[in-house]
Write a structure and sequence with these properties.
This is DUF998 domain-containing protein. Keywords: Membrane, Transmembrane, Transmembrane helix. It comes from Saccharomonospora marina XMU15. The protein contains seven helices and no strands. The protein has one domain (about 1-245). By secondary structure, the protein is mostly helical. Helix 2 (about 65-90) packs parallel to helix 7 and helix 4 packs across helix 7 (about 205-245).
Length: about 250
């Protein structure tokens, strides 16, 4: 019995340590992404207006493309690292949330691999793939966090994170809707919008606010994962000698 308890303690500690490492990795990646996007917005504001232009156009700014593409890949990597860390602790997000988070990661990679067109209208296959993948980014992560919040609020130690995720996700849905409204003149090209209803001048700012909320959702998950996994690892290390001694 003592050997069995000791084995369980070691396994629990190993899973917790792996979850802790994955949470640290995701936090480092996300922190770098925040710095990278801040750098792009400041350094290239003359080439890509942060108020009116979408972040996708950084691929057409000299020396900005590599940073932007690397940031998209990094966010996808951090998302998958968070998912893997949560799995180590058997934290239940629910199948819908997991599928949406994987879809969010896949869409980020598609946006990185297929740049948009540098023209008012989409003219290439790469541009269409980017547009559809980019549009999915506005809904997949907020919906994933709403679904995850429903599952997390019933689990010990995750209720506070669930409430925060829900608030951030609702804010993201509001901004996603606002971005869609701002881009209507580009989408409904056959109708002449009056100037008072044309919000394209601030569409870039709305999009950046949306991405900031989405990064905040991932950071909230990663921070809580670090705290829970660190606590679990310490608890397992304290119990391991007792289990072996029995």
């Amino acid at each position: 019995m003592g050997v069995t308890e000791g084995t369980r303690a070691r396994r629990g500690g190993a899973f917790a340590a792996l979850a802790c490492a994955l949470s640290v990795l995701s936090l480092l990646i996300l922190g770098r992404c925040v710095l990278a996007m801040t750098y792009l917005n400041i350094r290239f504001h003359d080439e890509v207006d942060p108020l009116s232009r979408a972040v996708s156009y950084y691929v057409f700014a000299e020396r900005a493309a590599e940073v932007f593409v690397a940031t998209l890949v990094a966010v996808a990597t951090a998302t998958l690292a968070i998912l893997a860390g949560l799995a180590q602790l058997r934290v239940r997000l629910g199948p819908r949330a997991v599928v949406l988070l994987i879809g969010w990661s896949a869409a980020l990679l598609l946006c990185a691999a297929f740049p948009t067109d540098d023209s008012p209208r989409i003219e290439t296959g790469s541009g269409w793939i980017h547009q559809f993948a980019g549009a999915s980014l506005f809904v997949t992560l907020p919906l994933a966090c709403l679904a995850a919040a429903t599952s997390l609020r019933e689990q010990h130690g995750w209720a506070g994170t669930a409430r925060l995720l829900r608030r951030l996700a609702i804010g993201a849905v509001v901004l996603a809707s606002a971005y869609l409204v701002a881009r209507l003149p580009d989408l409904v090209v056959w109708w002449q919008f009056p100037g008072v209803l044309d919000f394209r001048a601030v569409s870039g700012l709305v999009q950046r606010g949306l991405f900031a909320l989405e990064l905040a959702m991932l950071l909230a998950l990663a921070v809580r994962l670090l705290r829970v996994s660190w606590s679990a690892a310490r608890q397992a290390s304290r119990h391991r000698p007792q289990a072996v001694a029995r």
